[in-house]
Amino acid sequence: MKEIFARHNWTSSRKVALPLLGALALGAGSTMALAENGPAAIRAQPAAASGDVSALVSSVQPAVVSITVEQLANTSAFDPDDVSPFDFFFGGGGGPKRRSPSPHVGKIVGAGSGFVFDDKGHVVTNAHVVDDASLVKVKLSDERELKAKVLGRDERLDVAVLEIQGAKNVPHVSLGSSAGLKVGEPVVAIGNAFGLGGTVTSGIVSAKSRTIGAGPYDDFIQTDASINPGNSGGPLFDLKGQVVGMNTAINPSGQGIGFAIPSDAIREVLPQLLSSGHVSRGRLGAQIQSIDEPLAKALGLNDTRGALVGDLENGGPAARGGLHEGDVVVAIDGQPVVHAHDLPRMVGAHAPGSKIALEVKRGSSTVNVPVTLGELQDEKESKPARQAQPSSSSLGLRLGNANGAGALVEDVSGAGPAAGVLVPGDVITEVDHQPVKNAAEAKAKLQRATNDKPLLLRVEHEGLGRWVAIDRKAG
């Protein structure tokens, strides 16, 4: 059995990374009022609120399901020696595979978790749990095993909705508010750990709004409640018996560190998944990057808050609205953008075609930029911006003329301050906001630049632009 567990090694980025050229959004559309009073609705027992976990478990566990998934696979190329124990426990496409007698086509069987959230038998789980599934079965707490249909998947948030076929009298739970969670608050995780089914663990909320590099919408609840392979898609409950998160990721090299998608984020996308099977998101058309202290100094900023615009899509929504490369987005519709990774979720609160107002720092001025969002296309993913990392002591660069305007970085000395910031193949197009035509001009501008603040460079690599700051006094 291949144990399915989401974002298995959270230190590894997914295909969709934060500074996407277009995909700066979360789910759009109205929120959904989930059923709480249907005939099969589960109500948390009063004792749970006073800390009686056993009463809580008795009240909510009937709505938690174990999911079995079958995938068709070409087994002729299967080699057991290629299976890594790490892959088995934490995913990554490996894991023991149980094959059919056919030498060409077999079945890969995986396990996950989920929970019923309404009286129609709809189940929420992780999108990766049902990825490429040829057959999905749901096992209820009363031992009934029923087929389920995948109604919709949202790979970016890693959420899927299933419909249990022929479901009658299936208990369900309600989504609570993850925004109201407090660090230190007790929580309970229930799921199909290691395919064993019905495993209950408890802990506290260790942190909120965690960014772990899993995708563009990272906003995880961190918990020390034990989460294991097979728990993917299972609910994280507060002591009121409401779902406040969906267990999704762990750190395979740590203990007591698990991550759950907040219930508020799940609630945002459910209406679209139920109605259309996919989530339509707005597209800003800007590649962004975070701001470190050297960049802030080089840009003349007082702090590192906001999202720096590294590049713009030609003719894209942001460019048409008047956003510039080098702008720092500090607010959207009056809501502060504290970190660069906040921007995708904030843009995602709006549907394609929506008009948003960006508050932008541009040099010493603050301007408002109105943008009409485009629509994000699933098949178009762009390359993430590389983050500038400060290095130490003469620039240590060998420059040549680029094809077109700019100075090509041919080599970077490991002892110079540009090490770790610039790489061979980078093209310097600006020095402290001054355009560079060739290598000679770049060298002259670099020599004339003062040392009172980090050197600000505009750099392009494989068609994508970014800003970097080099502190020549460091080291």
UniProtKB/TrEMBL annotation:
Domain of life: Bacteria
Residues in PDZ domain copies: 273-364, 375-463
InterPro entries: Chloro_Bact_Ser_Proteases, PDZ, PDZ_sf, Pept_S1C_Do, Peptidase_S1_PA, Peptidase_S1C
Amino-acid positions noted as binding substrate in the UniProt annotation, renumbered to this chain: 70, 128, 158, 230-232
GO BP term (any one): proteolysis
The keyword Endoplasmic reticulum belongs to this UniProt entry's keyword annotation: no
Name the record gives this protein: HtrA protease/chaperone protein
Annotated region (Disordered), positions in chain: 374-397
Pfam (any one): Trypsin_2
Signal peptide: 1-35
Active site (catalytic residues): 128 (charge relay system), 158 (charge relay system), 232 (charge relay system)
SMART domains: PDZ
Swiss-Prot/TrEMBL keywords: Hydrolase, Protease, Repeat, Serine protease, Signal
UniProt feature coiled coil, ranges: none
Gene Ontology molecular function terms on file: serine-type endopeptidase activity
